[in-house]
Amino acid sequence: MSTLPHLTLLTTGGTIAGQAASSADTTGYTAGALDPSALIAAVPGLGELAQLQCDSLLSIDSKDMCPAHWLTLLARVQHHLARPDCDGVVITHGTDTLEETAWFLHLCLPPGKPVVLTAAMRPASALSADGPMNLYQAVAVAAHAASANQGVLVVVNGHIFAGADIVKTDTQALDAIDAPARGPLGAAQPVQFYHPAALTQAGCVPADALAGQTELPRVDILYVAAGSDPDLLAAAIERGAKGIVLALPGNGSLPANWQCAADAARARAIAVIRSTRVAHGRVAHATDTMLPAASGALNPAKARIALMLALAAGTPELSARLFA
Ligand code: SIN
Q1: Rounded to an integer, what distance in angstroms lies between the CA atom of residue 168 and that of residue 309?
Q2: Mean pLDDT value across residues 168-181
Q3: pLDDT at residue 314 greater than cutoff 90
Q4: pTM score, two decimals?
Q5: Ligand 1 centre and the CA of 139: distance in Å?
Q6: Which residues sit opposite 273 in a β-bridge?
Q7: How far is CA 289 from the centre of its chain?
Q8: Domain 6-193 carries which CATH code?
C-alpha cells in the first residue's frame, strides 16, 4: 500500500497548458489548450512524489479570469481540502493574473493543508518549456510536510513564494514571477523553507461572507497619470462601481483637482483607496482625514481584491486588517 500523499491537481489553463503550432514559438500560442493528462504525461517522476487526482476546472488564459472564476475556484479548493483523502491541492494557472488569484485565495483560505499554485512562461509545446519542471516542483512542495500551515504558496522557477507576496515583474522573461518586497520563502528543490510565511492576513475573510456568492462587489482601478481627468471617478461610479482604487503617483499622492471628486464619492458612501503606480514601497496612512484611505503595502490589483472582499464581508475590522 502506497504511503505517498494524495494531492488534487486542479487545472485552470494558462501558458503552462499552452500549445503553439511551432516548438520555437513562445508568444503566438493558445493558452489552456492541454488537458491535465497531457500536463502529467510531460512530467516523468510525478508518480514517485504523490498520488494525483485531476480536476479540470477551467481552460482559460488568465487574462480572462474574473471574480466569478475566483469564487468558483475557491469553492473547488475548499471542497477538495475538506476531503479526508486529500492531503493538498496543486493549481495550474496563467502567469498574467497569478498574483491576483494567489492573493484572493490567501485571504480566503485559512492555513492548513498545502495549496500550491504554479504556472509557466513558455507554452507546453515550446523547446525548453518551463512548465514540466514547475509542475514537478509544485507537486514536490505540496507533498512536503513543511508546506502545511504556510498559507497559499506559489512555486515557479525553482522558488517557493508566499502567494500574498508575488507580482509579475516581466512580460516575457522566465523569472517573471517575483516577490520584490520579501523575496522567496524557500527553494523548491530540494524543498527548503528559509523562513515562515507572514500569515496575519491568511484566511482573514470569514467563509460565511462569501458562501453562495457568485460575484463580488464591483471595484474599479483608475490609473492617474499627470493631468488625468477627475471626472473618471464619477464615471466609474455611474457605471456601477461600489469601490474605487486609485493608482496614484508617488506615495499615493492625490492631485489637488481630484479632491472634489473624492469628496463626492465619499458623500455617496463609495469607498476610495489610494494606491500607487510605483512598483515598490508602501502607501503611508495619512493623518488628513479628508484623504481617501491608503492601500498600505498593496498594489492596485491587490488593493482592488481587498476592497471587493471588505465590501462583501462588510466589517470595518476586516478593512483595517486588509490595508494594514
Ligand atoms: C496566461 O496568463 O494565461 C497566459 C500567460 C502566461 O501564462 O504566462
Answers
A1: 22
A2: 96
A3: no
A4: 0.97
A5: 20
A6: 245, 293
A7: 31
A8: 3.40.50.1170
